[in-house]
Amino acid sequence: MEIRRAPYIILGLMVAIYLVINLGLPRIGHGFVAAYVLQPIMWGLLIFFILRLRRPQPAGKWRLRQDLTKLALMIGAFQVFCLAIGGIFCGFGKSPYSFTPQGIFINLIFVGTALVAMEFSRAYIINSLSKRHAVPVMALVALLYTILSLPLSRFMGLGEPLETVTFLGGDVIPLLAENLLACFLVFLGGPIPAIAYRGVLEAFEWFCPILPDLSWGLKALLGTIVPALGFLAVHSLSSGRLRIVRRERRAKREGSLAPLTIGAIVVLALLWFSLGLLPFYPTAVAGGSMSPALHLGDMVIVAKVSPSAIREGDIIDFRQGETRVIHRVIDIEESDGSRQFITKGDANDNADMAPVASDRVKGKVMFNVPKVGWVALLLRSG
Fold this sequence. Notes:
Blueprint: H1 6-24, H2 31-51, H3 62-90, E1 92-94, H4 101-129, H5 134-148, H6 152-156, H7 161-189, H8 191-207, E2 210-212, H9 216-238, H10 247-274, E3 280-284, E4 299-303, E5 315-320, E6 323-335, E7 338-344, E8 356-357, E9 361-369, H11 374-380
Antiparallel strand pairs: 1-2, 3-4, 4-9, 5-6, 5-9, 6-7, 7-8
């Protein structure tokens, strides 16, 4: 087989296995055979195919690969520790998986073959194609493997906006961060460090009898901040220890890794910001009731504040049924220790019909960016 074609063939095999698992195997009546026999066989054949090829060398030296494996285990253990701490605050639930000796063995084969196949294929693709364009190759592979890690039914079943946001925040974003770090690990050290990192996470999910019952927001936060810190740790460890002889090429390769690390952290921060995981978030003005202070299509930055911090004259973002409204507070009523806000749009003649209870207030508008919200409004309207 021509070496240049091998990574594309492996990529095609990965997509084919994903489609067979999600579209072909569900039509087989025997669910156990389809899931726990045929899937491991397919992953095993892919592993055998990759091992028969001449594998490209990662960028890191041999000693670095050993140290990366140890660091990857530490990052995975730290991520599990953070999830467990989150469970202390949010509670734990019973694992849905079997813990009989037979069940543990079957699950070990099921998870292990998929994990090894994904990381060996990831390492082969990245280390074959990243000689000139390491950063875009790693980014694209991370995105693709994020999609391949999620059942096709999850994408097909999306409907309500809240369901979509929960899916993106609780599932897609943590998996994308995990895959970005795994791509960085295979680029520097081959498949073993990535197997070590992801293996710890998979072992915790599949073989721990109790699991933290986290909200989607906390899952997104913990599932991205630890890989982001892992990026920094891996980049620091690999500095000056790449398998490149000439000093000029070494400086160029190391310089290409820094944008990936910084870019990944910036992207994650923007995702937290847009999904409301930070103490402030953006939202678009969808009407003209606040003119001239706010215009249709403006983007406002809303801070999450306590209702006691809201004063007359403040512009607040609140929920009115299924609708989000941005209006000004013109009066505050207090009764039995609770506050209600009388609101009114600046362009309206009369105040809003119903007072706004404190639990319906999302935050207070701090400032606005004119016209930037038109993009969000156009996307929202399809």
